[in-house]
Amino acid sequence: MAITVNRKPLSFWEKLYLPAIVGGLKVTTKHAWGTLFQGKRVTMQYPEQKWTVPAGYRGAPYLVKDQDNNTKCVSCQLCEFVCPPKAIRITPPGDSGLKADRPNAEKMPLEFEINMLRCIYCGLCQEVCPEEAIFLRNDWSHLGASREELIYNKEKLLALGGVSPGIQKWKHKLEEAKEQENFPVKI
Amino acid sequence: MDWNFIIFSLVKIAIVVGVVQGLVAYSVLAERKISAWIQDRVGPNRAAPPFAKYIPILGPLLTRWGMFQPLADGLKFMFKEDFTPAGVKKIYFWLAPALSVIPAMLTVAVIPFGSTLGHQKMVIADLNVGILYTFGIVSMGVYGIVLAGYAANSKYPFFGGIRSSAQMISYEISMGMSVIPVLLIVGNLNLGRIIGWQATNGWLVMYAPLAFIIFMVASFAETNRTPFDLPEAETELVGGYHTEYSSMKFALFFLAEYSNMVASSAMMVTLFFGGWTLPFWGLNHPAQSIAMGLAQILVFLLKMCFFMVVFIWVRWMFPRFRYDQLMDLGWRRFIPLALVNILITAVWLWMRS
Asked: pTM of the prediction?
């Protein structure tokens, strides 16, 4: 059964549209006054003023270094595998003889590319990374004059990513291993 | 052949058309700025020619006020592709924009925008049937819109055209009737004489306030402005009668709308607010010197700009009427009201004489 909405017939005063007109005048004047003279603006002047993102914002994925300025990525290629839009391309060291630049890591990528035009900022790479080497940082705006410019390589990603204050997994393992050497702890 | 008359008329036409075009361009800017302020935004403040930043202080200031935006808009319209859709009726499609601009520009011809400058009357055509001419020309404006809707051969523009024809014809009646009290009081159709009468007896809005209100609302409807912008209701009709138009042809419709606004503001000022007169500083009499003549033109322009702002303000204040409400308001409220107003004025004048 159809529901009948009970609509009150308009009173004479309302039929004149005058209260509505006065109300409209009041609202628009208030807003115009506020914008003009009190600086109550809701818009942001974009290129000059930029939005500061909240903590935990999922922006562009960048590679990070550890406290000792070493590359954390070990070229396991899990992120490349998991990336839904296939934005990540890793070239493993292979036979190039490139050694990892930190102790106890077996390898690091020869080249690491993220195509920012393909990236969908899903954060799966960050989630899957066993080394905590890739993080979604705050950047939400990428500018470039060509498509090639927006494929970020390893140097660029590392430079943009900065240092992660997170764990140094292998350093910890190394210390454990060293402790193992003089195992029977002398008391 | 009076060469003096021809040359001065041509000069006046050139200046008036130029001023109206400029007003149109900058009223678009005003529209955008005022809408922005009402909606807590800033409005256009970026567009600037490359040399603007080398002008100290003034350059950045003008840029911030968006003063170069109309130039950019005009340039954009010029360089856009002028696309003619396959299914349109070509002749009418090309004719319609012209038909809507020409009446809009013609209306300004009879409006006295100042008293005298030197020995020249500041009106292009000092017709004795000024008001009748205006109404005749204004009612031609509907053809442009109807033709545009018809020529586009597409359903939404067609709806727009149909709506506009019904709306404009209905409101023309109440508009015409609303002016009759003015004519009764003044006893002359010449717009210059009407202003002269107002200079001695006070503005007509005090004698016929109801006529003014009806005239104003009807002119909102005539110019297809909110709350009566049904012919170009974007939310319902994609774009309205100009949906299929692009580039300069679309710009011409824009021009026509804003020229109509200018024309009806000028009419309101002339008919009800004393035209170029002000009751003080001796601005009430036809000017003796050039400076006074210029001051009176300025007064007229300022009054007109005030009504332009009202037009714009109203657009960002009210929602659109539903179609039946629009018709109801036009036929069942304003026409009887205008008739009663004529009667009251006539009786009042009869009692006084």
From this structure: 0.78
